[in-house]
Input
Amino acid sequence: MIHINGLKKQFGDKLLFDDLDLHIRRRDRIALIGDNGTGKTTLMRIICKDVGYDSGNLAISGGVRVGYLPQFLFEKYSIDVTLFEEMSSVFGWIHAKADKLRELEHEMGIVEWDSPDYDKIMTKYGDLQEELECLGYYELDARIKSILFGLGFSESDLDKLCCDFSGGWQMRISLAKILVDRPEVILLDEPTNHLDIEARNWLEDFIKNYPGAVILVSHDRYFLDATVNRVAEIYAGRLKAYKGNYSSFEIQREEYIESLHKGAEEYEDKVERIEKFVNKFRYKASKATQVQSRVKMLDKMDKPVIPPKRKKISFKFPPAVSSGRKVVEVKELAKQYGDNVVFMDAEFTVEKGERVAVLGPNGGGKTTLIKIIAGIINQDIGEISLGHKVIPNYYAQEPAEVLDPEKTVYDELYREADFSQGGDLRNILGAFLFSNDDVYKKVNVLSGGERSRLALARMLLKKANLLILDEPTNHLDLYSKDVLLEALKKFEGTILFVSHDRYFVDALADRIIYIKNHEVSYYKGSYEEFLKYKV
Output
């Protein structure tokens, strides 16, 4: 459906793409992979014709429509339109045909039934009614509701004004409009960023059964493994495609890089042999033809381009002081904001060494619960007690909550350090990929991923035995998530965390706290076991 050949794109002195090829077929599920700045978002914007390219060819088959969900919503919904009206606006052209059908019904009511005009109107009416049936007009409302409910909206949300939804829910509205429209090709840039686990599960199933092609960028490994059948990695301005899901890609990529290294060694050996021959016989007339032949051979030889070695954060949490058996004890806990009851009668105990995931729909109270436990906000009713020798350390969902935007990276870390740690700060920052002049950047110019890494680095300066983490994988790439996961697995203390990353939850949690409809439930066992309980 879409064919890209020899694509070149340059921003100033930076060459983003050079001779990039990609072919998108019906039913393709393609994950775009690559380090930050390699051009994943730019490639999507070129495909949907938001930006141009310098040379090459982009061919889109006639009649193929492309829907694009950007990573960020640049313009929020500000008009006084209800959610259902906004969704229905996608089908304005179909509704116009339905209006024409009603006009024909009116004409039939005023024209004599035995008139020649009546037969003409009836023919038009029949043709238009058949067309509307083919377009699915009579199922549009059901389609809209099915997608909205799948993404977490409720029946009562349908009459709510779009401008009254939060930024995360407005992103869901934009996603819902694309899914309802059913274009032949869907481009999704980080579609799961604002979705809870239940909505992510629904979106996975939707993508699996979608009749068109889907191209997506995501840092959710579980989501990629469940949805994609091809992985396209962008590096050095080009694109290398692999068959299979993300886990399969990782294995194939290592094998491919190993073959490239062997090819590079063979290339160097061959070049060395040819150059020796040329230098030895350069001035010998009887060898002139052979020398020229080998010089031409050198000119035609292409050195293998090897993907750059990925930089990963590398760290481990400080040794945890041993605590008592009971780490957190919650009794009859309740919290509400005005008339909005968040949860009530919550009771559970977190014991030493447990890894407890706090799950539930967005807005259900997960962050509120762990902020109360961390002492950031107060409960309305009930008791929370931390056990003997428990030392908590809290990681905020948005690092901006705890970072000073006017301080440099180094100074932000330094203000958390004690005297004995001063000499280690550079090493810690280096482990989190802050090197050279990066340490003098102000916090307010850092990307989301950089702020997350800095907030994690600050946690290493406090020798806690209870980590309270609110969405610690937000803004981290897949490789950084893996390193964080391994560090948490080796942590000697207790962990209480909120996450919508199912791979992360499945790999770490051995207890689940689930919040829904104001109720807090406690399950012993892994995420997989919890799903069985829930069913």
Residues 391 and 399 are 20 Å apart (CA to CA).
